[in-house]
Protein 1
Amino acid sequence: MSDIKPIDANLLETLRQIPSCSIANAIETFSVQPRNVGFMGPEIKSVFPNMGHMIGYAVTAKIAADAPPSTHMNVSRTEWVDEIMKVPGPRVLVLEDIDYPNPIGSFWGEVQANLHRALGAVGTVTNGGVRDLDEMQEVGFFAFASCVLVSHAYVHITDVGVPVKIGGLEVNSGDIIQGDQHGVIKVPRDIAAEIPDAVKRVENNEQEMIGYANSPEFTVEGLKEMLAQRY
């Protein structure tokens, strides 16, 4: 088994319910990383934006589909299952499609969504594509992808448990991945427990500004004074 340790389950559920944008705002207040990193770019979109919020521990792999697998670039599905079970649940399957930016075959569809859901996965993040959208959504399997595809082509797993890069974000197995209609973000473990309170602080500050903008006392000079204090 892996030495990846889960964080407190109640904390994980709290983080799941927070919009990704609010998590991003909160992370910025700790100065643990530059503000232009830690999240995936706009090419990775929520396939089911009305499904809500996803969170889990990443299980990483690389896939390809444009050509049949060669002996040295083909990981068996049983090895993939073993890799999945090394990571605590809930699990998010993070698959880098090495055919990107021209993915042609989908690993994900009705069958794989059901099988991986039975393995404790809540969804997938990939720079490849997904298909069988109605069936995936019906079982509540989250999907964040670069596109929708019609075929699985020659899709196969080429590597598991390795660092992957999707939407500009490097992800390792065990990383905490959160996603919603806005996109996908990685939650730094070192500050995870402090994020809920940081979210409240940021939102209180925002509500002060919003409240002032909608108050009878609003003036341009007052706004300029408020902005000077905060930015």
Protein 2
Amino acid sequence: MSLFNDKLKKITLKELLSLIIILFVIQYLINALNIVHIDSFWIYIFIIFYFIFKLRAEIFSIKNDIPEAFSPDILKTVLGVVILNIFFSYGMLYLSNSILDFVPSVNLFNSFLTGSLIATIFISPISEELIFRGVFLNRLQLAVPVVFAVLISSLLFAALHSFGSIFSAFIFGVCIAILYLKTDNIFVPIFAHFLNNLFAEIIVVMDPNKILFTNTSVVLVMSILAIVSFVIILIFIIGNLKKLNNNDL
């Protein structure tokens, strides 16, 4: 265990939640008074600086953690999880679009990824992994069995996402929680989250005509890949959750 990850595990839920609540209250008040518009991007930035401040004494110990996140074995697993999740995510988006066709009054669906490019690819992976895996998952393990800690932290992570991607975000959250517990290195889920968002943004940019959603043949192929990906991901999750339950990860 690195000194950085050891110190990260000591940050309490009470302290982090208090900070998040205060930041959102300040955001609401400033926006309500029309002083200046503040969006969630700046809250995430502030939270990252909070973690930097809390972990400043051990910040240089990450020189060993970062290279580990790019080791061949970990890289292969991360890429597998991310690519399977991309296919599965689009399958869930197809399903959500179909549901909304029958329930037009429900206006919850947003684009697969929202916010600016920098926020989506860089800021969100860092801040969300520090929050949900670095603090929530670690502190929940002290109160409930590790499998429940993984499921609860992943459910909270999924709640941040839009209607069309809640379930796929939950599945992805479980996968990267497992990766974090297997490696005890927060930079592994950060890297996986970064790759996931990067690939998703690249697909959006390369598909301006929405062929992935309008071409019947493409939709059929993607749907089949989504089902296959879900089965493989499910096998990965069940196998590793059993190991977690037996403390044999």
Protein 3
Amino acid sequence: MKQKFNILTSTCVPLPLENVDTDQIIPARFLKATTRSEQFFGENLFRDWRYRPDGSPNPDFVLNNPRYSGEILVAGKNFGSGSSREHAAWAIAGYGFRVVISSFFADIHKNNELNNFVLPVVVSESFLQELFSSIAADAKMQVEVDLPRQTVTNKATGHSESFEINAYKKHCLMNGLDDIDFLVQSKEKIEAWEAAHC
């Protein structure tokens, strides 16, 4: 969903598992879907962990735990590894997550998240573990993600870290633009350059 991103303060959903790959985020069988409906992919986020074989919710999986909610997913190291399927980012966005925090992302998945208006925030391993500890202590604790300042703050402890983001992607997120929107917005500059160089 195209939406501008500035500062987000939210509770978090913890997923303290390392090496979560895109097949776990959205199983391969959903790649055959003829829709790109956010609702469809969001409903099937982490499908094989979230539901039992008979289709009933797995009460042991975090997305089915009423203690946890929010627009921020806090995930273990090496999130989004495996295949390059963009469907994984569609599912994350479709569920309603606007930020994923981890200590490491697979590069292609990280870019897919950015292209789908989900902000991947890379933090140190120690800060990530602090977040997991704070969430375990209080499921209602909040994290503030400040895109203009490029900081993430654990509101429970007051600790902050800076994060990196490509300047172009930052501009697009802050203005709710995808790549086509950016080109259209830059039409006059492109035409002026062509007039001067062609």
